[in-house]
Amino acid sequence: MSASSEKKNVALFVTCLVDLNRPSVGFAAIKLLEAAGCTIMVPETQTCCGQIAYNSGDKESAKTIAKAVIRAFEGFDYVVAPSGSCAGMIRHHYKELFEGDDTMMVAVEALSSRTYELTSFLHDVCGYKSEDVRMDTTLTYHDSCSSLREMKVRDQPRALLDGVDGLELKEAEDREACCGFGGTFCLKYSEISSAMVDTKIDNLLASGADTLAAGDLGCLMNIAGRLKRRGSDMKVLHVAEILAGMGDRPGLGEGDS
Questions:
Q1: Cα–Cα distance between 203 and 54 in angstroms, integer?
Q2: What's the whole-model pTM score?
Q3: Within 10 A of 97 (CB to CB), how many other CB atoms are there?
Q4: Is 138 helix (H, G, I), strand (E, B) or coil?
Q5: Burial call 154-170: b when 16+ CB within 10 Å, e when fewer
Q6: N or C: which end of the chain has fewer CB within 10 A?
Q7: What does DSSP assign to residue 168?
Q8: Rounded distance between C-alpha atoms, residue 230 and residue 168, angstroms
């Protein structure tokens, strides 16, 4: 439920991974935003945020993509993404891309100031609290690097999860450490990435939790894949799915999304 009756005109930035690998996260985000009193649009012209090109050093391609994103999301009060990394790219790194371009910076600043990660928007802007949602499980939460360090998202998802009946949070040791995904990092430095995700999983399993949640699908896919290869039955869900009452669906790697 929203703390305010004011309708907010929100555009959902779906993200590539949600669109192609876990569309249920997008549906969950829409359900939550509507429950928080928002009017939702999903611009059909939206594309990738450009993060992969940017992180790979291809700044010209990243600029081209960013310009398309800016056009697609003009005219909305807010832009919300169920991903700290995509939200962080738009909020922070577009400014770096167009530094020195005064004309583009006007549009970049306007978009940046309106862009939020989903749980931060629900908690900080909408004052949303879960109602009539139950999931009987013990859960541990992974803080993704971009959400935590770029978007300052840490307490917001935990506060929202606290309103889910039957859910007990069990914090893992070193919960703020990187899982080793890092986009193309896991491909370029696969041995280092594998060691990092194994350390992460050791700590997650040691928490005694049955379920893992996070706000970034890239991290969740990376961890879920490694959990499966290690023979673990820990369930992996995006935090939006739990908050939207969709926690009973198969976790990542367990079935169709």
A1: 31
A2: 0.93
A3: 21
A4: strand
A5: bebbbbbbeebeebeee
A6: N
A7: E
A8: 25
The 3-state DSSP class for residue 55 equals: helix
For residue 143, give Cα distances in angstroms to 112, 133, 188, 217, 255. 22, 22, 23, 12, 24
The DSSP letter of residue 172 is P
Q: Rounded to whole angstroms, what are the CA distances from 247 to 41, 42, 69, 101, 237?
A: 24, 23, 31, 45, 7
Is the distance from CB of 217 to CB of 253 less than 8 angstroms?
no
In this structure, what token pair is assigned to residue 155? 């307490």
What domains sit in the chain, N to C, each tagged with a CATH number? 8-124 (3.40.50), 132-243 (3.40.50.11810)
Residue pointed to by tokens 């790979």: 56
**Strand runs (DSSP E) across the chain, as ranges?**
8-12, 38-41, 78-81, 115-117, 134-141, 165-169, 211-214, 235-238
Are the beta carbons of 2 and 127 closer than 8 angstroms? yes
Q: Which of 159, 124, 112, 164 is nearest to 4 (CA)?
A: 124
Which residue ranges in the chain fall short of pLDDT 50? Answer: 257
Pairwise CA distance, residues 54 & 60, whole Å: 8
Torsion angle (degrees, nearest 10) of CA 196, 198, 200, 203: -140
Residue range 214-253, pLDDT digits in tens: 999 999 999 999 999 999 999 999 999 999 999 999 999 8
CB distance 52 to 183 below 8 Å: yes
Of 212, 218, 214, nearest to 186 by C-alpha is: 218
The Cα 3–Cα 88 span in angstroms is 26
